[in-house]
Amino acid sequence: MISPDSFFPRKDGRLCAEGVPLSAIAEAFGTPCFVYSRTALESAFESYRQVLAGRDALVCYAVKANSNLALLATFARLGSGFDIVSGGELARVIAAGGDPAKVVFSGVGKSEAEMRQALAAGIGCFNVESPSELERLNRVAGDLGRIAPIAFRVNPNVDPKTHPYISTGLKSSKFGVAFDEALALYRRAATLPHVRIQGIACHIGSQLLDPAPIAEAAEKVLGLVDTLAAEGIGIAHMDLGGGLGIRYRDEVPPSHASYLGPLLEKLAGRPQRLLFEPGRSLVGNAGLLLTRVETLKHGEEKNFAVVDAAMNDLARPALYDAWHEILPVADTGGERLGYEVVGPICESGDFLGHGRDLALREGDLVAILSAGAYGMTMSSNYNTRPRAAEVMVDGESFRLIRRRETVDALFALEQGL
Ligand code: LLP
Hints:
Blueprint: H1 4-7, E1 10-11, E2 14-17, E3 20-21, H2 22-29, E4 33-37, H3 38-52, E5 57-62, H4 69-77, E6 81-84, H5 87-95, E7 103-105, H6 112-121, E8 125-128, H7 131-144, E9 148-155, E10 177-178, H8 179-191, E11 195-201, H9 212-230, E12 237-239, H10 256-267, E13 273-276, H11 280-283, E14 287-298, E15 303-307, H12 316-320, E16 326-328, E17 337-342, E18 351-358, E19 365-368, E20 389-394, E21 397-402, H13 407-411
Parallel strand pairs: 4-20, 5-6, 5-13, 6-7, 7-8, 8-9, 9-10, 9-11, 11-12, 12-13, 15-17
Antiparallel strand pairs: 1-2, 2-3, 4-14, 14-15, 14-19, 16-19, 17-18, 20-21
Helix pairs in contact: 3-10, 6-7, 9-10
The structure holds ligand LLP.
């Protein structure tokens, strides 16, 4: 289990990323800026590897959580596979040196162009999410003279007990194929000449803190694997998706062992290869968003700390009312006040934290923790704000892994009348 504190320690009152003071990073590259710890990424991957040791298993990092090439390359070097949801993500994986044969392609609306791209690259598996996608993929693969390896992403109708926006395995969800339809779809797929049945997949939701729903989903999927076997339809792999939660505030996520243990027990002795698609648990606590206080506004009802990061950089608080720890980089020991930590964007929803007790002065640096997952990838240019820089720290050294966007680049594709 990664705790942000181990990779972002305070040394002599100064918050650091591994051995580098965050103030040095702000000085070198400015703010706002995402800062990642390479050791944290590697240690998160290692936690999966340890629990899966001795199994035929593949971790396919969910690229959507953070798609920076340097992170992808880090995971590729560790032998990771990748879970993608677009042709763009596939291009990133290949550019970062990832092995296309270890790629699974999820998503409810794959275009024909994306199917062709993925077939040409030789990806490991298409996680098919609808009957019409199956037919289309068969046709597209036929046109290219290829065979598409497929799994159906089934919807086990299990309540993952997480935020409704990130709950994906219920019957009412747009994802996956209905559990009851899966058998008929596998039968159909078995008759198609240009697809090869490879596996079965499910993903029930994200930021899961209770291991029970995923174990329940696995149970259902296993039942289906047995039914298929009885019909002579062999399943080579079971992909149980991502979802393991992390600690943002006071959540107590299960350890890798207690999350995966019950699943592994159920699957013991099975011939199937196991796939997992973790995103957040690999990168979430390996990154923070470094920002500077622009203005302090003290009011009768509320005090505002306006920082130079905003909802366009980290959308999670505005979108899900998500809580991220906010820490001053230098522990000045001044008087603490309750602050609304907000960005400069023209929206009342542009907040990063409500009512935080902080001792702040204008110009101070502040770190917003647990921002490694769904931070940069969900950022936007709202209010014509260039997207933040990204920096990777490795021990005592650090390097820029994405330059800060320039304003010119933001309108370079536009045409003035
Ligand atoms: N596999 C599939 C098919 C997925 O849809 C997802 C996430 C994952 C794997 C990775 O799940 P993870 O291990 O990261 O929980 N933007 C939201 C999270 C959206 C998750 C979407 N799917 C957030 O910031 O909380």
